[in-house]
Amino acid sequence: MSYELGLSACFGSENIQNAKMLRISTLILVVVQCVLNNAQFIPKIDVSAPSFDNLGIIYSTEAPKAGEFLRVTCTVVNLNKDDSRSVKWILKRPNELEFAIAVDAVALQFQRPKQRLFAIHETGSRLWALEFRPLERNDFGNISCELSNTHPNVVRVTRFLSIHTEPIILESSTRDVTANIGDNFTLDCFANAYPPPRFQWVQTFETGTFGNSITDAELIQRWRPFLRNWEALISEGPTLKVYNVSRKHRGTYMCSAKNGIGMGDFWTVQVKVNFLPSVTCSPEKVGQAQQMNADAYLECIVEAYPPATLRWFRYWKETGEKRHITDNPDYRIETSGLKDSVVSRLTVVNVLAGDYGEFHLTAINDYGEGIGKVTLFETPEIQIGPGAPQIRYIPRAASSAYRLEGMTSSILVLLITFYFAF
Fold first, then answer.
1. How confident is the model at residue 413 (pLDDT cuts 50, 70, 90)?
2. Distance of CA 171 to CAs 66, 96, 164, 237, 264, Å?
3. Are 308 and 213 in contact (CB under 8 A)?
4. Span 302-339, pLDDT tens digits
5. Contact (CB, 8 A) for 271 and 339
6. CB atoms within 10 A of CB 212
7. Whole-angstrom Cα distance, residue 52 to residue 75?
8. What band does 299 get if pLDDT is binned at 50, 70 and 90?
9. 115 CB-near residues (< 8 Å, 6+ apart)
10. Where are the beta strands (DSSP E) in 354-419?
């Protein structure tokens, strides 16, 4: 009743209805203004300060790198002087649960073996800070600044921390592979890095150098045309797929991961291909004079995987007879291993007439057999030169009767035997 009298006194009885409506509007405005005024004093995270994504968390550098210093700050506004609520820092890495790393001025994580995380906050200050001294590559993830005791309307801001890191290739990348002819295989290269790295696959094959068994330095030059040595870029990207495997796919595959930070990282995979042996003899015909204290070298290169068992044979075409040759005073067998290739040399010591003819080198593994053939023929003079037999000045008697089969007279045999005996 008094409300209506007041309205009548102010607006008149004829405008009382309009006055009531005006009064209601005024009350609404007053209530709204009251709410707005009160809202100015609700604590919240300050997002007005300039930052990279304006989420209320500021990093001291926008492109932090592993190993460097980083300061992270968060400011709370509308806190009165008697408000003692704390701020909690939270880290959530991808695919992991979040966990608290600091509260106010107390760091909770990254303390061992040496403290590298420090929390900073002074009583009465509205600024909270974290300092990483230094950052590590695994510190990346969502960092949150959260004011305590704000349930159900939690006061919290979150910003992703990207750490620029040099690539590290993971142990889960593909290890060595063994394949058969016609198979398919896949090589994977996984790396941790930010920004994401660029991957390249390179295939290399280097047969290497000869071992100490064969000491002739010119041997390397003679066999170089038969040895495979190359390096070729074959793929971009972390995954390499190879189809219909052949011998050419064997070798070392190297994955490189680079993103412009540091030197990058590298991962090597050995690919072995099972195949039957192949034997190449060069030259296929070797000449040497007889009874001149000169040796003849017969050389073949064998490619096989798994490694083959090698055997030299003397072969007579006329009869089809094959005689296994072993290391003895008349013959010397030497081998020198490469990666999946072996050079085998048969030295015919002090060539005699019975040595002329065909020699075979057989190579056998689980996938088959390969045969190489070399013919030793007579020359009127001793053969000397690069890759040719060398003169030997140590006299040797004929210790195998079949090496003298080419002699024309048994009397001559007796004379030679008598001469060396005395």
1. very low
2. 21, 20, 21, 17, 15
3. no
4. 999 999 999 999 999 889 999 999 999 999 999 887 66
5. no
6. 7
7. 15
8. very high
9. 107
10. 357-365, 368-378
